[in-house]
Design goal:
The structure holds 2 protein chains of 2 kinds. Chain A contains 19 helices and 2 strands. By secondary structure, chain A is an all-alpha fold. Chain A has one domain. Chain A has a two-stranded antiparallel ribbon. In chain A, strand 1 (183-184) and strand 2 (191-192) form a beta hairpin. The longest helix of chain A is centred in the N-terminal third of the chain and has 49 residues, at 91-139. Chain A is globular, with a radius of gyration of 23 Å. Mean pLDDT of chain A is 87; it is low at 497-520. Chain B has 2 domains: 3-69; 90-163, no CATH class. Chain B contains 6 helices and no strands. The model of chain B has no long low-confidence stretch (mean pLDDT 90). Classes of the chains: A mainly alpha, B mainly alpha. Chains A and B meet through helix 7, helix 8, helix 15, helix 16 and helix 17 of A and helix 2, helix 3, helix 4, helix 5 and helix 6 of B.
């Protein structure tokens, strides 16, 4: 009941005309960047971080939440009409959706994606409202050792489980942790990795890191391999669905939601696994199994719902624990810290008005998205025709502007270029982006909890496992790290005569399974 | 093509491993220069985490070397506007890098409007746009509206530079 009252207060705050306007701006921007190639919600929010200097926290977060949800809607439009999924989570949508579009059923594919996203997003947000307060209640009782263990779990899960190559994942994580170390140590004031440069004493501004890695690195990477021939898009009318389409869609929507939310809510997060599971399930359950691979509507409805439900799920650990598990959530967390707000279990207590206004705005944004996406799909599709030089020159322009506006310092622009080149290198050599960003964000907090935990135990390492929850979480971490090795060993024993050396299955997998969100 | 450059083509990822290794040594060296007395209130101290990170970087560097030499290089990232399998187009990337360097070095003196104008027009031209009227107009509109937008909307005063008094 208390939750309900808080949510209603949130609606009251989010429904003021000015906040409604920010929600609308957010969903419009989100859809646009979702549709546009080469730019996605994570990069968009990173480029918009400068607004946090002038805008109120509630307005900024409402807008960012709109971008987050809007990016999902827009992303499905691109994958259906262009067959070039921008994010790993929409790869599955592209398989069936693009086939449907080619067969002249683009309108139905877009409709089932949009309505399914709405259904899943709404149910997912309801689940967020129900579950997040419970997680908070559990989390506030945790001491430093348990919280440290949970943060390590999130880092390991995102790095080792989602990525395709563990070495490269951990390399990215270590680089991020290293960047996070730069500056004065908060406890002793000792300067670390500043190399005598006074401008580094306050650390590298996280806005500069985010903009460099997501925007500059991506723009360089695309510029290096820009597609010069014009893209072919499938013309589309207004999305609509017939009776039969509804009948075939509603169950996949609900099942997709059931897959998506829990995966998003886990510290490992990710939308790839649930969208894939949803696709496989729908294929098995469908009465039209022969249509799969040629444009089955269930294959769009289920994975799209899973994708959106997982997006809602991701907000659970982000708001309740301060743990972001995808790129956009990570940058929204950066926005929170820009306001001096400490993310973590105490967020619901210290800033209830802000949190609930943002959650309420998710419901509003979702409804707005359905309203603007169904009738306006043909308009959005036109965005795909934007001249690429303008698009990527614009990204470089706004990235430079955003990084410069942080401190009005040329030094930050120099850092922007260096880190942008790092982002370029990472994309070239398949180092995932997400572990690096999480390392920069969570590294300092991990160190703080570590020092606090060992301060309590007066330096005795046993202090790290002084709470039962911590022990359990470490057990999960070890399992996550060792399970693939065990599976590999068992497989190698079963097929001893295969001749060739057992290739690492993680590396062999296609990019569909990658966690590398790459900023789009 | 010499055999060395051919070899490098296949094993250029070793450069990433070298970068990780250098970063690891830097972090460890930096940690060794920290002098902090042991304190009861902070038994971990400021050196422990840098040491862990440094070792982690070195281990990853070594692991990457092994992987690359065994022929398991990582696939590069794909994307919507990317032509897969093409070699890196340095003729586009290097001018873009140069543009960012130019923009950074003139922004304080020349002001944001001029620096931003140079950046956008230069980047659009580098990326293949050849509209000699439309491109500079877009660049000018973007750089002036962002200047006023930041001033009026966010209260951030970007440098006016040479145009001080005009804007």
């Amino acid at each position: 009941m208390e939750t309900f009252n808080l949510l209603m207060e949130g609606f009251a705050a989010a429904a003021t005309p000015i906040n409604l306007l920010y929600a609308l701006v957010g969903v419009l921007l989100g859809t646009a960047v979702g549709v546009l190639p080469g730019i996605g919600p994570a990069m968009a929010v990173a480029l918009l971080l400068p607004v946090t200097y002038g805008l109120g926290a509630d307005a900024a977060l409402i807008m960012f939440a709109g971008i987050y949800y809007g990016g999902m809607y827009g992303g499905s439009t691109t994958s259906i009409l262009l067959n070039t999924p921008g994010e790993s989570s929409t790869v599955i949508t592209a398989i069936e959706g693009h086939k449907m579009a080619k067969a002249g059923r683009a309108a139905q594919a877009l409709a089932t994606a949009a309505i399914g996203s709405f259904v899943a997003g709404t149910i997912g947000t309801v689940l967020l409202v129900t579950i997040a307060p419970l997680v908070v209640k559990f989390a506030v009782s945790l001491g430093a050792p348990s919280y440290l263990a949970i943060m390590l779990l999130a880092l390991v899960a995102v790095t080792a489980v989602l990525g395709q190559s563990k070495v490269r994942g951990f390399a990215a994580l270590a680089l991020g942790l290293g960047i996070g170390l730069i500056g004065a140590d908060p406890v002793t004031g000792q300067r670390r990795l500043t190399f005598g440069q006074p401008l580094l004493v306050d650390g590298v501004d996280i806005v500069v890191v985010a903009v460099a890695i997501f925007a500059i690195g991506e723009a360089f990477w695309i510029a290096a391999h820009l597609r010069r021939r014009p893209v072919e898009t499938i013309p589309v009318g207004r999305p609509w669905m017939g009776r039969e389409d509804w009948k075939r869609s509603w169950k996949p929507w609900l099942r997709g939601t059931a897959f998506g939310f829990p995966f998003g809510a886990l510290p490992a997060g990710g939308a790839e696994v649930p969208t894939f599971l949803s696709y496989v399930t729908e294929k098995r359950l469908s009465k039209h199994r022969h249509e799969f691979g040629h444009g089955a509507i269930e294959g769009v409805a289920g994975p799209e719902a899973a994708n959106n439900a997982s997006a809602a799920g991701t907000l659970t650990p982000m708001l309740a624990l301060g743990l972001p598990t995808n790129a956009t959530a990570a940058i929204m967390l950066i926005a929170l810290t820009q306001y001096g707000i400490q993310p973590g279990p105490l967020l619901f207590e210290s800033h209830p008005a802000l949190v609930w206004a943002m959650i309420a705005s998710l419901f509003i944004g979702n409804t707005l998205l359905l309203l603007i996406n169904l009738p306006l799909a043909p308009v959005w599709a036109k965005l795909l025709q934007i001249p690429r030089p303008y698009l990527y020159a614009g990204i470089l322009f706004f990235a430079t502007l955003g990084a410069y506006a942080v401190n009005l310092q040329t030094f930050d622009l120099f850092l922007l270029l260096v880190l942008g080149l790092l982002g370029f290198l990472m994309r070239r050599y398949g180092l995932p982006i997400l572990p690096l960003i999480l390392g920069v964000i969570l590294g300092p907090r991990v160190e703080e909890e570590l020092r606090q935990a060992l301060q309590i135990s007066a330096g005795d390492p046993a202090g790290l496992v002084s709470e039962p929850i911590a022990v359990w979480v470490y057990a999960i971490i070890v399992t996550l790290l060792l399970a693939p090795l065990v599976v590999k060993a068992v497989r190698a024993r079963r097929t001893p005569s295969s001749g060739s050396s057992p290739e690492d299955p993680q590396v062999e997998e296609t990019r569909e399974d990658r966690s590398n969100l790459g900023g789009r | 093509m010499t055999s060395l450059s051919l070899w490098w083509k296949n094993y250029s990822e070793l450069g990433v491993a070298a970068l990780l290794g250098v970063a690891g040594f830097l972090v460890l060296w930096d940690a060794s220069t920290i002098t902090a007395p042991y304190s009861m209130g902070d038994p971990v101290g400021p050196k422990a985490v840098p040491r862990i990170v440094g070792v982690m970087l070195l281990v990853c560097a070594a692991g990457l070397v092994v992987q690359v030499l065994r022929g398991r290089s990582a696939p590069a990232e794909e994307g919507e506007d990317i032509e897969p399998g093409t070699p890196t187009d340095w003729k586009t990337v290097l001018p873009l890098i140069a543009l960012l360097v130019i923009t950074s070095s003139i922004v304080d003196a020349a002001g944001w409007v001029i620096a931003g104008f140079v950046l956008f027009w230069g980047a659009a031209a580098t990326l293949g746009s050849r509209h000699w009227v439309r491109d500079p107009i877009i660049a000018l509109v973007l750089s002036t509206t962002s200047f006023y937008g930041f001033y009026l909307g966010l209260g951030i005063r970007l440098p006016a530079g040479l145009l001080e008094g005009v804007l």
